[in-house]
Amino acid sequence: MSHDAFATWIGSIGVALLLLAFALNLSRQLRSDARLYTTLNLVGAGLACYSSWRIDFMPFVVLEGVWALVALAAVTRSIFARGSAAR
Q1: C-alpha angle with apex 48: 58 to 40, nearest 5 degrees?
Q2: Is residue 81 within 8 Å of 34, Cβ to Cβ?
Q3: What is the pLDDT of residue 1?
């Protein structure tokens, strides 16, 4: 098995973003319905998914891929909800 340093860096950044969102939410500094929270989850999960794909670890590709898709849906819903509220 080869070590992929790039995947390690990308995955570490992704996990750091996920943990940042989690910690800010637990400390009540960021609500779970805030766009920043869902964006941090989207980017973090996307990076972690890509990193897992690079190292060919499919269980986490599925986990992080689904996490990113759910976060994308939340971000999209937030954008359209704010857009329709402004009309």
Answers
A1: 140
A2: no
A3: 47
Amino acid at 64: E
What are the backbone angles phi and psi of residue 12, rounded to the nearest 5°? -65, -40
Note whether residue 6 is domain-resident. no
Q: Which residue has the tokens 């992704």?
A: 14
Q: Total domain count for the chain?
A: 1
Structural domain contains residue 64: yes
CA pair distance 67, 41, nearest whole angstrom: 8
Confidence tier at 83 by pLDDT (50, 70, 90): low
Residue 1 falls inside a structural domain: no
- Is 4 inside any structural domain? no
Q: Are 71 and 41 in contact (CB under 8 A)?
A: yes
Helices (H) and strands (E) in the chain, counts: 3, 0
